[in-house]
Design a protein that fits this description.
By secondary structure, the chain is mainly alpha-helical. 68% of the residues lie in helices and 0% in strands.
């Protein structure tokens, strides 16, 4: 794997944990460079972002198991962005709520809530994967269209 693809993987992984950030600009640059194919970029970005979502899911399990009995549990929940909105959405909709894990701002708390609520791992991981795959496939499709031009600085 080249340094560019490694950077895309790491960036995708971190962007899907509770670390803020995005990789859209890097993905666009790598696509436009022509050095890497559509499927390589799709696979690396999807795998990194899915792995980040799964790590966030396990952070939710750890949060539930290790901190539920402590008085400072609410502070830790806020620190990890485990919001009541995310918990209520995941309680209401279950695993299908994770289809929206691709979305900025709300996606990471959904993965965290799924782990915290102890939703089944494999179906959760599959939904996270489907969501991330759809996001990057759509982005790369847009980048490949002749009508799309990136904003210039």
């Amino acid at each position: 794997m080249t340094a560019e693809l490694t950077s895309l993987f790491v960036g995708s992984l971190l962007a899907s944990t509770l670390v803020p950030g995005g990789v859209e600009v890097a993905l666009y640059y790598l696509y436009q460079s022509g050095e890497h194919g559509f499927s390589s970029l799709l696979g690396v970005a999807t795998f990194g972002n899915t792995l980040g979502g799964i790590i966030t899911y396990f952070m939710g399990i750890i949060l539930h198991r290790g901190l539920a009995g402590f008085g400072w549990h609410q502070r830790i929940r806020r620190l990890f962005k485990l919001e009541d909105k995310a918990l209520s959405r995941v309680r209401k909709w279950g695993i299908p709520a994770l289809f929206f894990s691709w979305m900025p701002i709300i996606g990471d708390p959904l993965c965290l809530a799924a782990g915290y609520l102890r939703l089944s791992f494999w179906p959760s991981a599959a939904m996270i994967f489907i969501s991330k795959f759809a996001r990057y496939a759509a982005l790369l499709w847009v980048f490949s269209q002749p009508w799309f031009t990136a904003p210039s600085s």
